[in-house]
Amino acid sequence: MRVIGLTGGIGAGKSLVLSILKEEYGAEVIKADELAHELMEPGKEGYLAVTEALGEGLLNSDGTIDRKALATRIFQDDRARKTVDDIIHPMVWKTIRDKISASQAELIVVEFAIMNEKMDDSWEEMWYVRASMENRIRRLAENRGYTREHSERIIASQASESEFLKRCTRVIENDGSMEDVKSQLAEIL
């Protein structure tokens, strides 16, 4: 079993790399962000801990967490972001370790965007998907409808390229074509 951590900033093209690894190499993909969302569903331990810590003012009328309100709060309030991170991140890493332990796959890729000190290291190597700022902003506008200002604000809130490079063992360049990415992956694997 080979376990790879895959990271990169928003708009860098992690989804493209994941789809190639899944479709062409049979990789099992574990997405940290999806696990975090699952942990925030009503009744789940993350939901209970976050609503206790931040109050029920973040809930929709159906009892689900208003993700937009939560995102606004954590991007404007560092203490709220730290509180949510301190609650959810350890739960996510435990779930990832459990999934890796239970997997029969030959190749497992754990995808996440947030780099921090409390990060787990359940992988043998970490890959960084890199793209230029202009390509990232263009992709975010095309794929998510983000304005340039919104994209720049999110990018600025994430780890810097030097932080990513310090922790990663390989770099996947994603400023070219899909064929460029495929050939890089073929060479690595």
Automatic annotation (TrEMBL):
Pfam family, one: CoaE
EC number(s) reported in the record: 2.7.1.24
GO CC terms: cytoplasm
InterPro entries, A to Z: Depp_CoAkinase, P-loop_NTPase
Function of the molecule: Catalyzes the phosphorylation of the 3'-hydroxyl group of dephosphocoenzyme A to form coenzyme A.
Stated name of the protein: Dephospho-CoA kinase
Cell compartments where the protein resides: Cytoplasm
Lineage per the UniProt record: Bacteria, Bacillati, Bacillota, Clostridia, Lachnospirales
List of residues binding ATP: G11, A12, G13, K14, S15, L16
Organism domain of life: Bacteria
Family, per entry: Belongs to the CoaE family.
Biochemical pathway: Cofactor biosynthesis; coenzyme A biosynthesis; CoA from (R)-pantothenate: step 5/5
BP terms from Gene Ontology: coenzyme A biosynthetic process
